[in-house]
User: Fold this.
Amino acid sequence: MTSLAAEHAVLVAAVAADRDRSAFAVLFDYYGPRLNAYLMRLGCDRAAAEEIAQDVMVSLWRKAHLFEPSKSSLATWLYRIARNRRIDLLRRDRVDYVDPDDFALDIADESSVDADRLLDSQARDDVLRGAMKQLPSEQLALVQMAFFESLSHSEIAEKTGLPLGTVKSRIRLAFTRLRRALEASGVVEAD
Assistant:
């Protein structure tokens, strides 16, 4: 654990145990702008990024006792909360079409890869976005329905009028193409 990470873990402990406002202010001043910039890089407009960043920091204030420094760094924990809140916001808005540039698909098993490296891996996201643009439209549409609209394979089959087996095959083919693109770029290791 770096000295900054250790210092932040101590500050979080102070927030959790004593509701230490000065410790929280230090964390807010450090992470607030970083979370805001991260969310804007993910495609949020300024207002949404600020709102989500503030929401994440309120979560830190309220749930500091849930942070476990042995499992991840504070940065990883906060960035993951921010990313998940952004995804929740996208799902809640239920947009019919989401540009592939606005989505970072998690193909790698997060438990097997250092989460800090995943969050900071802009190269992985760029390769994935490019690979998604290369998918045939029928595969891309099904992947979007499955992940952006949270539809099951049977719901997708019903919505599109395609046989269930065709839906499953096209999604599996899309994942295979995406994985190959990530492997070819060296972003993830081949099995």
